[in-house]
Every structure is written in structure tokens, then in C-alpha cells.
Design goal:
The protein is of the alpha/beta class and 461 residues long. Helices cover 42% and strands 13% of the residues.
Length: 461
């Protein structure tokens, strides 16, 4: 077998499997060996479901041999965030005390993946409760592009495993940016779909009205194919009558893309704008809501809903999750009601923006991936459970429910990836996939892979 097969796109692998150039079981064994060799350092997996993966691989091989094709990704090995319930496979939701919890049924999207013939290699790391810091017993994943730097949160394991070639794509969740942040930090494409489009049943919630499930992948084609599997029958509601790339109007708020961000992010945004213009698109000035106010509004609603989710459960270990719950417990009814009203106003404001543009281009975050030691040393704001800068550019679209796709936008001098996000009207995911695809053809970021020499040094030490 090609020793670099783990660097293939999921779509390329699926084509080879359908043509019977490769057997699924052989690919799965290769991936399991690779996880064993490298993940002790990267810590992207909480649980490796080797027995399940082998059973699914044998079934997929038999079906493909018989010409029964369940989906465009039939037989492709992926992994899912450990907040998604998996029947008979431990589901911890990021808490070491729950690593012996075995659900009796799968989350809805896990069932859809199985019905589509995909193979599940295991469950991926996340902070406890999908918020803030990782359980110290499980440990935090390490960025394969540079081990000393932040891998994104909270779908951090999903980002690390996909970027490092420990799965061909992954499923994450996003309540305030948790797919888009690790996608940006790991040179991936990640989608927070339109609210309600992908079923969240069986996913341990952070805040039910803000939670989304979505795909993370190394190429736009992989992202679209995995999204279609996750959406199931709901994908029929996704609009298909998209305009040509040259007809698209892209809205840019200069305060968001220049004044409020690190100069490195501003430069990456300018370069992205230039590539979109080269593709024939037109930039239009727009005004977005103040990102800091969006973040503070999000924290009120998220914290209040999280209090309800965790009522009666064991007190979390994570200080950041405890801080969120304490913040939610102090939010009085009038403050929450005002936040609900403001959320509706924000949604209307974004709908008004889309009257004049086809897409919004915005940063994923205001900073390049920081060093882990600098991140852990940062003191939180006493008034808030997290800093508004952590989620300010992403949480708006969880509040409004619009689909947002993170995509690579360049690299720092240290070789760390940075990203941007494209936002579309509700139900227009295909527009996002179209632009990501043609953008990547000229940018070529998806062709780059992290060099794992530093990982190998740790493994061999």
C-alpha cells in the first residue's frame, strides 16, 4: 500500500475503493497503525474503536465488491468528536470520569454515517463539556503544524486528527466557533451548517439553541461530501440554483477585517480578498454588528442554557466550564429576556445585509494561533466566563443560524495556519462549497500537509 495514502483526500480514496484498487480493511489497518504510532503525542483520540472499524471495513468491502454503493464516501475511515453518542463505544464528552460511559444508542448523525457506509476509527478529544479547557487526565491535543501552539477549540481533536492524517475527515460541533477555530488553526475546511439542518439528537449539548454539528476536512470536495452524509434527507432543502462565481458579491466590514485584528490576520484577509477579486467577484462594504457585544450576548444565552443542561449532573472539573455555569446562574430573567430580543434583532440585521450581498467574508479570530503556554497563562475577565476576543468573530452566526465555512487563508512566519470564514444566507451551503472549491484551486492551501518530524522526535525519545 502507498505509505502516504493517509494524505489522500477522502474523495480520492473513495474513488480508489469503488474501483477496487484498494481494500477498506487494508486502509483501516494502515490508519490504526498510524494512530498507534503518533497519537500518544498528538492526543487527538480519546477512544480508538478498532473492533468496530474492522467490522465496518469488512462490511464495506463486501458491499463494494458487490457493487452496492451507499454514498460517495463509502468505506472512507473518519472519526467523530467524543460528545456524539456512539452505541457500545465510550462517550466521555471530554471528561475523564465518563470514559467508561457506553451509550445504548447512536447519535442521529452517527447513524447517518453508518448508513452511508463510512468507517468510524474512534472518538476525538474535546474540552470538558465542549467549553474551555481540556480535562487534565485526558490532556489537550497538540497542533501537528507546531506542537507548542494552540490547536483550536473545542473540536480540537477533530482538527488535529484530520490535519495529521489520523483520519480522512472528522465530525465536530460548533456552539460559538468550535468547528471554525480548529479548522483555521489546522489548515482545514470546516462548516457550521444552517441551524437545524443537521440533526443534533444524541449529541451532548452545550447550549441547545446554539449547537450545530458539522464536517471538518482537508479539501472542499471532502467537506461537501461529508456534509451531505450528515444532513441526510435534509440536504434536499439546500438550494442548488447558485450564481456563477463572477456574479457573486462579497460583503466585507473593514472594522472586522482590519481594525479589530492582528496585522497578520489583516494581511491574510487582504490576500483572500484579492484572490476572490481575481476570481471575478465584487467586494462590497457592509456593516456588521459589534463583535464584542455579540460575544457578551452569546455568553449570557450560552451560560443560561448550559445551567439547564448541567442541572443535577456532577460538578465539572474544568474551571472554565464551572465559571460558565456560575455566570449563567447569576443571569436574571430580565437580562436573559433582553438577550433573546437582541438575538432576534441581530438575525434580522444579518438578513438585511444579505439583501445587498451574496456572501460575507470575515476573520475566524482576531489573532494567529498563540503558544499554548501563553494561552494557559492568560487571566480571564472576572466579569465573563471567557474573553470576547476568543469567540467574537464566530459566535454571531451561531446566534443568527447562518451557515459559515472556515477555510485556509495563509500561514504565519512560524508556519502556523490562519483562516477566514465565508457566511451565506440560510440554506445556501452549496454557495459556500462552490466558492471554497474555486478559491482553493488558485490558493492551493489544501495541498499543504504538516511535517510531523517534531512528533516523531517525541515518539522516538
Amino acid at each position: 500500500m502507498n505509505e502516504h495514502i493517509h494524505d489522500w483526500t477522502a474523495v480520492r480514496l473513495a474513488q480508489a475503493l469503488r474501483r477496487r484498487k484498494l481494500r477498506v480493511i487494508d486502509v483501516v489497518e494502515h490508519m490504526l497503525d498510524r494512530i498507534t504510532a503518533r497519537d500518544s503525542v498528538l492526543r487527538s483520540y480519546v477512544t480508538v474503536s478498532a473492533s468496530l472499524a474492522r467490522r465496518q471495513a469488512r462490511r464495506a468491502d463486501a458491499e463494494l465488491e458487490a457493487g452496492r454503493i451507499r454514498s460517495p464516501l463509502h468505506g472512507v475511515p473518519i472519526a467523530v468528536k467524543d460528545s456524539l453518542a456512539t452505541r457500545g463505544v465510550a462517550t466521555s464528552n471530554g471528561a475523564a470520569r465518563l470514559t467508561d460511559h457506553y451509550p445504548i444508542r447512536d447519535a442521529a448523525v452517527v447513524t447517518r454515517l453508518d448508513d452511508s457506509g463510512l468507517v468510524m476509527l474512534g472518538k476525538l478529544n474535546l474540552p470538558e463539556g465542549a467549553f474551555g479547557l481540556h480535562d487534565p487526565i485526558i490532556g489537550a491535543p497538540r497542533n501537528p503544524w507546531h506542537m507548542d501552539y494552540w490547536p483550536g477549540a473545542s473540536s480540537s481533536g477533530s482538527g488535529v486528527a484530520t490535519a495529521a492524517g489520523l483520519c480522512f475527515a472528522a465530525v465536530g460541533t460548533d456552539s460559538g466557533g468550535s468547528i471554525r477555530h480548529p479548522s483555521a488553526a489546522n489548515n482545514l475546511f470546516g462548516l457550521k451548517p444552517t441551524a437545524g439542518l443537521v440533526d443534533t439528537t444524541g449529541v451532548f449539548p452545550l447550549a441547545p439553541s446554539l449547537d450545530h454539528v458539522g464536517p471538518m476536512a482537508r479539501s472542499p470536495a471532502d467537506l461537501e461530501a461529508l456534509f451531505m452524509a450528515l444532513a441526510g434527507a435534509a440536504r434536499r432543502s439546500v438550494e442548488v440554483d447558485e450564481p456563477d462565481g463572477g456574479a457573486l458579491r462579497v460583503g466585507v466590514d473593514r472594522i472586522w477585517s482590519e481594525e479589530a485584528v492582528d496585522p497578520l490576520i489583516s494581511r491574510a484577509m487582504r490576500e483572500t480578498e484579492g484572490r476572490l477579486v481575481d476570481l471575478g467577484m465584487k467586494l462590497e462594504p457592509i456593516h456588521l454588528p459589534a463583535w464584542r457585544e455579540c460575544a457578551e450576548l452569546w455568553m449570557i444565552l450560552c451560560a443560561r442554557e448550559a445551567v439547564g443542561v448541567h442541572a443535577g449532573l456532577e460538578t465539572p472539573i474544568s474551571p472554565s466550564l464551572r465559571r460558565l455555569l456560575a455566570f449563567g446562574a447569576t443571569a436574571d430573567a430580565d437580562r436573559v429576556e433582553a438577550a433573546v430580543i437582541q438575538r432576534k434583532r441581530l438575525t434580522s440585521a444579518i438578513e438585511d445585509v444579505f439583501v445587498g450581498v451574496d456572501l460575507i467574508l470575515a476573520p475566524v479570530q482576531c489573532f494567529a494561533p498563540p503558544r499554548i503556554d501563553r494561552l494557559t497563562a492568560a487571566e480571564p475577565d472576572d466579569r465573563l466566563p471567557i474573553s470576547p476576543t476568543d469567540i467574537g468573530f464566530t459566535c454571531l452566526f451561531n446566534l443568527t443560524g447562518h451557515p459559515a465555512l472556515a477555510m485556509p487563508a495563509g500561514f504565519t512566519e512560524e508556519g502556523l495556519p490562519v483562516g477566514c470564514q465565508l457566511v451565506a444566507p440560510k440554506g445556501r451551503e452549496r454557495r459556500l462549497f462552490h466558492v471554497a472549491r474555486i478559491f482553493d484551486k488558485i490558493a492551493g492551501f489544501s495541498l499543504r500537509r504538516p511535517q510531523l518530524a517534531s512528533v516523531d522526535q517525541f515518539v522516538n525519545a
